[in-house]
Amino acid sequence: MQRREVLFAMMAATSALAPLVTLAPSAARAQSGADTVDRVGLLLPKSAGPFARASTAVRAGVEAGYRRDGRGLAVDIYEIDDSAAALAAAYRGMLELGTALVLGPLTRDGTSALLELGDVPITTVALNQSDGEAAVPWNVIVFTVGVETEAEMIASAAMADVRGTVSGRPPGAIIVTASNPLGKRGARAFLERWRSLGGEAQAPLELEHSALYKFRSAVKQEKGDLYFLSMSPDLARPVRTIIGRTLPVYGTSLLSIGSSESTVRAPELDGVRLLEMPGVIQPNHAASLGYPQAPPEFSLEMQRLYALGIDAFRIARAMFSGRPSFDIDGMTGRLRYDGSHAAVQRVPFMAEYRDGAPVPL
User: Fold this and answer.
1) Which of 187, 208, 220, 304 has the fewest C-beta atoms lying within 10 Å of its C-beta?
2) Confidence band (pLDDT; 50, 70, 90) for 2?
3) Domain count, the chain
4) Which residues 6+ apart lie within 8 Å of 117 measured at CB?
């Protein structure tokens, strides 16, 4: 069977999945046809599973976007697991409803499963990136807030900052990462981009809180012009104390404690440059765009996913405009798409820690 036929064969062999709930004008609730509204399908992880909080946050963001600008649209919300069978059932259900655009899947495994299925019957904006090497179908666009893209961007910014300060040799970076999958992914992405720009760097140093005493001696053997830290602020604080303030330090949003209104402070990180979402680092950004702030009980990670949900809905709205490209001042960053790549380009704010909190530059 050819790759493009996999999903279609699975849909033919499975029952259609019905949406859990629909966001729609009352008239659209009575009519499932596509002649009254344009239908959007939102694929979320199951609310009773390990990604329950992520599902809740993204759904809240999409609902906020719909309340502000949902005219002419209906959003059918589906809860699925990451299996190919679940995707096939959802796509069959969406086809029967006349769905014109899909948002999701949200997880990396779900996106990987989607891409492995080959061609999809409905234009889809995947809300995460794939772990595999499968090609992205022509009608799938990737919109992600993954740490890898941020690491690549901060590597380019760091190279621009340091290149003029050294002469006669390539700039060197010392990469330090937490020994968890998220930290390692960011470190690996930074390393690859840094080397592609002509910089030098050894394999990342991995550490845990319990092994900081080993890090003190190991880092003394490293030489470079800057540090890249791929870790949480809790781990970065003692690391910064150990490495001192002689060399510049860079990181992704993993290093962020959120906005300056946070009750937490990390003065040890003052001077560190990082990337962060406008909707997180500027508490009034949501209001300036006409959206409510994330619920106060949302954690920092849930706030980011809430922002992702709002921007995903705004991308859907832009794609129904009929224009081949868009440029959006988003909650997660500046969002650009011109059809030349299979991904939405997201540019978050450059920020710097001052008085214990990150502020936009």
Assistant:
1) 220
2) low
3) 2
4) 6, 7, 10, 84, 87, 88
